[in-house]
Amino acid sequence: MLVFGLKGGLEAGARFIDSVRLFSHVANVGDARSLVIHPASTTHSQLTPAQREAAGVGDDLIRVSVGFEDVADLIADLEQALEKAAGA
């Protein structure tokens, strides 16, 4: 499990999620495949920004669970998604 924040908040998080190719965009963990989620726009979207911050779920938060895919492919996918999230 890997959790990190993106500069750019909700918009950057949405761009990142829209850009991944190998990762599945789902809320569960413990799968054999790689998963990614932006909690502020999915599982915690019903909360106000203040409630999300109090829960430790900032608008910039991305959660990644790595599965059994090829490591080089996963790294390349994350790199290209990070570039798109940054607006590059």
UniProtKB/TrEMBL annotation:
MF terms from GO for this chain are: cysteine synthase activity; O-acetylhomoserine aminocarboxypropyltransferase activity; pyridoxal phosphate binding
Q: Which GO terms describe its biological process?
A: cysteine biosynthetic process from serine; L-homocysteine biosynthetic process; transsulfuration
Q: Which keywords fit this entry according to its UniProt record? A: Pyridoxal phosphate, Transferase
Q: Which Pfam families match?
A: Cys_Met_Meta_PP
Q: Extract the Gene3D superfamilies matched here.
A: Aspartate Aminotransferase, domain 1 (3.90.1150.10)
Cofactor(s) listed: pyridoxal 5'-phosphate
Task: Specify the superkingdom.
Answer: Bacteria
Q: Per the record, GO CC terms?
A: cytoplasm
Q: Where are the transmembrane segments?
A: none
Recorded family membership = Belongs to the trans-sulfuration enzymes family.
Name of the protein described by the UniProt record? O-acetylhomoserine sulfhydrylase
| Record organism | Symbiobacterium thermophilum
